[in-house]
Specification:
The structure holds 2 protein chains of 2 kinds. Chain A is mostly helical. Chain A has one domain: Serine Threonine Protein Phosphatase 5, Tetratricopeptide repeat (Alpha Horseshoe), CATH 1.25.40.10. Helices cover 70% and strands 0% of the residues of chain A. By secondary structure, chain B is mainly beta. A 4-stranded antiparallel sheet of chain B has the order 2-6-5-4. A 3-stranded antiparallel sheet of chain B has the order 1-3-7, with no helix packed on it. The longest helix of chain B is centred in the last third of the chain and has 9 residues. The chains are: A mainly alpha, B mainly beta. The interface between A and B is medium-sized, with 29 and 28 residues.
């Protein structure tokens, strides 16, 4: 099966966009409303016939979306071994394997500060063509590290 | 009877809400655009595997169906906190009878998800009544 099966599936993409919008509603405390209920029902329809692996991936992405707000975790500067792992993230992204890139980032979360993590997630979503999601992660990176000029020009 | 999970709204009595809207113990029928089943010209349920969606565990549902309060157990949970995860049955998750009138069938290509369907092509009101009759069999299980 091609490595991009998730991101090639229109149901997967439709769901991930709605999931991002749901997280915006959650962030604004607007989801526990009739409008929020209607929105979640719309997500039922978008879910279509997703594969179990796609469901697991989407649920992990939902956890990633929670990092777009709230207190950041205490990350550590990446040790040399972790840098090698982070290079694998970039390699997967460049190969178009966005699922693996996002997975590897999660596995190495403890080795990376929250701003860098948000920035890298933004780069992956940007490469996947999901610019609205990418922009949200870039915004978060800038919010967490306002002095970092790199994040400002993402 | 297979163990099955479904997230549903909780009624004031702590039991699940019976009805034909989303997240209730009942199916959405045509002309609802999100209908769970298809009906023939006599309003009888078409036996095509469609029905009330269930899963082998609540963790197998999509994030928007898992109440947010379960985030400590399931970090992606993004569902309404008005929902609860209900379980019924004690057996292995597999296709099989749920009652004299209902069965569980597995979804194609997804061995951990299924639908509750009628055993026969009954009228939709009968199907809703059969589903409602299971109300006391469901207990909250969010472990």
């Amino acid at each position: 099966m091609p490595v991009q099966r998730f991101f090639d599936n229109p149901h997967f993409l439709a769901y991930v966009r709605l999931l991002h919008r749901l997280h915006l509603m959650i962030r604004e405390n607007a989801d526990e409303t009739p409008a929020g209920e209607a929105f979640r029902e719309q997500m039922d329809q978008a879910a279509g016939s997703l594969l179990p692996e796609e469901v697991d991936c989407l649920n992990a992405i939902s956890a990633d979306f929670y990092t777009l707000s709230g207190a950041p975790w205490e990350g550590q500067p990446a040790p040399p071994a972790a840098r090698a792992e982070l290079q694998k993230v970039l390699d997967a992204r460049d190969a178009g394997d966005y699922v693996t890139a996002l997975d590897l980032l999660r596995q190495n979360q403890a080795c990376c500060d929250a701003a860098a993590m948000a920035y890298m997630r933004g780069r992956i979503w940007s490469a996947a063509g999901e610019n609205e999601i990418a922009a949200d992660f870039f915004r978060r990176a800038k919010e967490l590290a306002p002095g970092n000029c790199n994040y400002g020009f993402a | 009877m297979p163990t099955i999970f479904r997230t549903m709204k909780r009624a004031n009595d702590g039991l699940r809400v019976v009805g034909s809207n989303a997240k209730e113990l009942g199916v959405r029928c045509p002309p609802n655009p999100n209908a769970d089943i298809e009906l023939d010209t006599n309003d009888c349920v078409v036996l095509n595997g469609k029905g009330l969606s269930v899963a082998a565990n609540w963790r197998y549902f999509l994030a928007h169906l898992i109440p947010k309060r379960l985030k400590p157990l399931f970090p992606g949970a993004a569902g309404s906190n008005t929902l609860a995860c209900y379980r019924t049955g004690t057996g292995v998750f597999a296709a099989g009878p749920l009652s004299n009138a209902l069965s569980v069938v597995l979804k194609s290509g997804n061995p951990r998800a299924g639908n509750i369907v009628p055993n026969q092509g009954v009228h939709r009101d009968q199907f809703q009544a059969d589903l409602a009759a299971t109300r006391n069999q469901w207990t909250v299980d969010e472990t």
